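Batch manifest line 317
LIGAND: flavin-adenine dinucleotide
JOB: complex structure
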Amino acid sequence: MADVLVLAEHHESEIRKVTFELITAARGLGSPVVLWLGPGLGDTASAALASFGATKILLADSADVIDHPVAPGAEIVASLIESLKPVAVLVASSADGKEIAARAAIKSGCGIITDAVEIAADATATQSVFGGSTIVHSKVTHGTPIITVRPNSIAASESAASVVIEEVSMESSESAKRVSVTTRSVVEKGARPELAEADIVVSGGRGVGGAEGFTVIEALADSLSAAVGASRAATDAGWYPHQFQVGQTGKTVSPSLYIANGISGAIQHRAGMQTSKVVIVVNKDPEAPIFELADYGVVGDLFTVVPQLTEEITSRK
Ligand code: FAD
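JOB STATUS: finished
ARTIFACT:
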């Protein structure tokens, strides 16, 4: 069976859920070969990758990969396209993932498709665009298809395989080492799930009215074990940290459930949440464009509706 190269998304030994989704998608195309850049690959991580069907793990944890962001990784992907000749390369649609994929596409002269939500057995990718109103099917016609896949688009399923680990040693070019990591600081993680990976996202916008208004959003999120998101209007106003912004210039989310509170539904916001499976809207303006995306909508003041919803959910637990 032909190899499919999957770039693992991980923080040290902690594997992001999207990696398992990518391996699941890769199984539909061939035999998943996982590229692990950097440290953290231990027995537990290898076993987890194997349980989803990885048949080989290529470990590249040289100092170059650790000390220089993105570019050395892109060189390794490009060189593996050359040596491994995979039928496709699958990468997460994260900031780093998309940058590595784009650089690897330029280096190897291969076509790239970003933000796929589905991949067919012949590597035809499906994208959902313009607020989910248009579905695009496209296929790379030049070289090895490099496809970035949105987290939460593909349901990960286990399929145990026996895995072999091979080390990849590759000297990075001088140009790949022009940017160095100078410091690393750990972002304090709360109890809530990571925004881009969360199964449920509860977001607030300008309608929340201020930083203190986000307490009602957080309470609803916590009742659902959800992540909190925000529109750019809310993050630019300093009501909620920028790392929680959803949209074109923020995070892309694709949860099972997205609850938009006091958000009008500008195209730039939709770009980051349009592939959510179910969308619930709470907005006092019945003409707000976000209602076009809604599966369920409540026309009302969020400060009345959201606490009632939280109370009802909590009482049913
Ligand atoms: P508004 O558009 O002001 O909407 C507020 C909504 O709240 C209204 O619909 C109102 O009816 C409702 N409301 C008010 N009070 C209540 C209440 N008490 N109860 C219920 N409803 C209430 N935006 C993003 O979100 N993410 C991005 O990544 C992003 N990137 C951008 C990139 C560019 C290049 C540009 C130009 C813009 C970008 N924007 C982005 C901004 C975007 O265009 C909108 O300005 C922004 O999304 C609006 O945020 P909002 O919906 O919270 O605010």
